[in-house]
Amino acid sequence: MEAVPRMPMIWLDLKEAGEFAFNAAVKKSAVNVPRDFEGCSTLRKYFGQLHYLQSRIPMGAEQEAAVPIAWTEIFSGKTVTHEDIKYEQACILYNLGALHSMLGAMDKRVSEECAAGAFTYLRDHFPHSYSVDMSHQILNLNINLMLGQAQECLLEKSMLDNRKSFLVARISAQVVDYYKEACRALENSETASLLGKIQKDWKKLVQMKIYYFAAVAHLHMGKQAEEQQKFGERVIYFQSALDKLNEAIKLAKGQPETVQEALRFTMDVIGGKYNSAKKDNDFIYHEAVPALDTLQSVKGAPLVKALPVNPTDPAVTGPDIFAKLVPMAAHEASSLYSEEKAKLLRDVMAKIEAKNEVLDQFMDSLQLDPETVDNLDMYSHIPPVLMEKCAALSVRPDTVKNLVQSMQVLSGVFTDVEASLKEIRDLLEEDEAQERKVQELLGKVPPPQGSPPSPGVAEVSKECSKYVEVHEKASFTNTELHRAMNLHLGNLRLLSGPLEQVRAALPAPALTEDDKQVLQNLKRILSKVQEMRDQRLSLEQQLREMIQKDDITTSLVTTDRSEMKKLFEEQLKKYDQIKVYLEQNLAAQENVLKALTDANVKYAAVRKALAEVEHKWNTTVQTLVASYEAYEDLMKKSQEGKDFYTDLEGKAAKLLEKARAACHAAEASRQQLLERSV
């Protein structure tokens, strides 16, 4: 069937324009279009601009700016006039469908779906009372004729492409269905009276095509049966195809030679298939031939559709030449649409804010910071504040040595002072003992212990007591200074040493594999929480930007007031997808927080251990930093101690000499006393 001659197509005449008080040049170019696709484009543009015009200027029926518009009715040739710009649009739309039907009837056969679309839009959006050729019955007839011819073209291509037999059969069956609908319209007495003589010609051609394409459908059902090796079914399908083709031949009397040629070609194909199938089954396969009504009927596959007409599509109609004319009603409608958008945003934001409040309260109660939930990274390096101290000590290698030497010098001077004071006290005690001994020898009652000695010794004793008191007070400070030095000395040695030793001295957590798994799971869920927050914020911003940029004023200008609510609903659908994403995000929060709760329970023990280690780590760092910062103070106090004890040591040395002299003088005085007593 690949080379079957084409069947003729039905095409429609274009309406002729009459009076219309519009720009002559525009009118001429719109009604006298060339019979090609450029003409279709011109009609579409004119139709679109009329749509823009009628939405701004009151040119409809019984409106202020309405003017007479005249067009010729196709079937009667009469001129029909209406004062309604929609009549002009309807006639232009009819001509668009008619021109597409004319182009579709030519060899290219690519325009029937466009014709069906034009007639469908005309039927669904305009009054049917303008003229007979645009009545509901006639438009339905035109639509089914155009869809049938479009499906016929698809069938032709499917056979050329060698599509599967069953698919070709279904496509052909749908051609039959469309033509049956058209035939029912043609057989309607009212339609027949409207069409006149052309009704008989169309009906005869359509009836012939019904039988012809039914034959093609059964031919391919027989081919499918052949492929499935159902040889009995093959025979009955080919026989049915032959019967239907014979009916088509009867109805084709008077049709052009192209039709007769197509029928003869098809008869050769089907007749040959039937004879071969019957012979093979009679002599080879011997399968029972079923009755046709026992087999599954062929269901049509509607693979064509009326292509929609969009009068406001700028790619088709071009820019709106009346764009600057925006009626007040359009501004008012735009305000209403803005309120619809605001309501949508309020509803969405109420849900977002409620979920955010729950999320914030929940996260605050857990006190979990995703950035520091484990703090493990801090233990892998020396903190900068400590590195700074280590670096400072590295350029002062004698720090510890200087501190030790200072301690040693201070200790030496301290010892010298203590020795001098001890010697003075010993001298004074010896002098006191000698004094008591002499008194006993002289038979005198010895003075009580602690009685005033000789004036020289008494002066030394008084001065010694003062130095001892000062020394005892300074001794406590000196002891504290040495204790502080010993405390910080070890830390300073650590800071002055290799960095690895410093790192090793800092506490670090000892986590088990289970502990690490708990941490990893918690961090993963916290990451999910942040991801959920970020996505929610991003979607909210996208929604706000969409609403901000959403201006449908141009569409409102070209929309009838009765259609506003429907337009709003259609336009608001653009937000459905982002609303779905937000709903999914909000719904996920409950599961995420439940998982976080479970993870936090397992994290409690690990968290406590990490907190303890972190406290020790911070304390160690602070102690080491304090030792570094104490160095200068220790050196200063050590120097002050040395200066103090050096001064005290000098005074003690002088006092020692003075004590020796005083004690010596007292001894001499006692010897003289003993000598005189003898």
Description:
Residues 27-359 form the BRO1 domain. The chain is an all-alpha fold and 678 residues long. It has a domain at 1-127. Helices cover 73% and strands 2% of the residues. α3 packs antiparallel against α4 (112-125) and α12 packs parallel to α20. It is elongated and about 190 Å long. The mean pLDDT is 85.
Report a brief summary of the structure:
The chain is an all-alpha fold and 678 residues long. The chain is built from 20 helices and three strands.
Lateral arrangement of strands in the main beta sheet: 1-2-3
Low-confidence stretches: none
Strands, total number: 3
Question: Mean pLDDT, nearest integer?
Answer: 85
Task: Work out the strand percent.
Answer: under 5%
- N- to C-terminal separation? 174 Å
Subcellular location: Cytoplasm; Endosome
Domain BRO1: 27-359
Coiled coil: 414-444, 522-549
Protein name: PTN23 phosphatase
